[in-house]
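Lab notebook, bench 4. The sequencing result for the construct came back, and we need a structural model before the next group meeting so we can plan mutations. Quick request posted to the team channel:

Model the 3D structure of this chain.
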Amino acid sequence: VLSVVQQLASPQHQPLPPTQIYLPDTACAMVVAHELLFDDTPWLSDSLAGGQQAAGGQAASILSSASKRRRVHPSIAHETAARLGAQSLRLWLLGRNADTFALGQENVEAFGQYESLTSRLHNILELYADGVGILHELIQNSDDAGATEVSFIFDQAQHGDQSLLSPSMREWQGPALCVFNNAQFTPRDLRNICSIGSNAKLAAGNATGRFGLGFNAVYHFTDVPSFISGSHLVFFDPAAQFLPGATANNPGLKIKFAGESFLEQFPDQFAPYLLCGCDMVSPYNGTLFRFPLRNKHTASRSQLRKEEYSEEAMRGLFDSLHDEACELLLFLKNVRTVKAFVRREAGAEPELLFQAERSTAPGTRNEGAIANYISGRGGGGTASVDAFYERLEKADVRQLPLEAMRLTVHLRHGPASPRGDEVREEDWLVCSALARGARRICEMCLKPEGRRLKLMPWGGTAARLSVSKRPSSTADAGEAAVATESAGSTPIAGRAYCFLPLPSATGLPVHSNGYFELSANRRDIWHGDDMVGVGQLRSEWNIALLQDVLAPCYAQLLLYARSLLHGPAFYALWPSSKPAEPWGSLVAAMYRLVLDQPLLRCEADGGSWLSARSAIFADGGGFELPDAARELLLRRGMPLAVVPAPVQRLLAEAAEAAE
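Done. Here's the predicted structure in token form:
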């Protein structure tokens, strides 16, 4: 009989004509093949042999049911049994619990990225450079989802590789990057993450970048990303090489794990997800991604990227995240804490490397006013972009929201950090606005072209006031900082932000944030004077955002800073030269605005603040006023202002241009 079975399964007899095939079961009785299971779950053999005695609850019921199913005779190879119509016990168990693609099982539905061609993903990886920007994308998605906390966990463990969904998954049980946030996926999120480059994310008014092209940058790390959120565990396998039953049309798997027994049935597969409060039994009130790193072997076979992602490269990524951790949180709408951990062994608790946490000064008002206005919270409105445009069309632009906040960001190091226990504290001023008083940019949004691009007139600036460093022991005790540096002694290299920092420098002493139109790879803002059509509109939008929103925010920031900083430290926040375009247009617009603002210090009559138009500059024109003469004129009430020469020059240029 076994010889006949081998012959029927041989290539020359495939495919078989439509007829019933009988195979011997474990008792040597001949049974129709499709009624038999072949046992490809050896780790469950004892439990199956004893029925429900080795398990409890839902697992007991399923194992009891499995133990009653007839098995293929153990002398018949699994591959042979499968060719002749017998079912895989592994897939039978999965089909009993999974909400997945078509496996020929009940309770099954198609699921996966709709445009998941490996060539498309390969092109995205060419567009999105490897580096810390990938972590930015994951933070941005978390922020859009409403999360307040994001954790990155470098899991260095080698996990068990026996009880897996498929033997091919063994290659992805090694070191991984895990990313947690405390927001849960919505049905919309599940749809969006499956659609490569979809504009569906733009329908949500409060979304900066929800699961578009940027999320797919994680394929720099892995071929098989996965995540848990709510009641589901989702795997993607765009090459259809690793997951059971994955195909080009359905390159993924969505498993409803809550209330089921997956952890007992496939313990090695699901043990790596026992992190951040996830127990693989109860619905998970958050989201946990797992990106197993591509090693040399998997890289050699990958259709996405031929380079391995080494543990050294991952440590370098964490170092980059650490170096900019304080500045990541300045403009985010919801995320207030970013943490980094390392897990050294399977089952061990992750150890803290560092965490950055943002807080606002006591008495801060209007935090979140812009996001609330856009989403309609507090006014009975809805969160769609179209609903926002309706509100904007009816609004008095003079009453649109403005936020001016003083923030403190603490960077603390944990026991796993090689940097010791130092605490870094940075004090920032952040001023943001939603087209306050700017009718031109509102009209650009409301035109058909602006609505189609989902333009949003939101921008702001941030200036660092001081940096303090201290050991964590003194920080906890409230003692004085070991070292404190003011804004003048710790200048920042201004960067462009689209709520998270972009690689491009601006040449300014402050950071500049906006709902900019970006290049396709999110590395720079769209700019150029040699464009037509939509490209020209995007460039014009960015200029309008700089002039109509960011320039007033910059001026407002200086008005706020004048009471906190003095002398050189205050003027360190002013641009001392006009940078290259498009940032030069921001500087020119800001200097025109401050001509009439009381921002220049005069020490006459006990001290006051003057506008550039009303002040007399003590120095300039190639000479310096002697100190004695300056003191005499001040005593006589002369409105003298001592201003750095570069600032004075740019004020003069602005006054000349305004005439």
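The chain has 23 helices and 25 strands.
Will bring this to the meeting.
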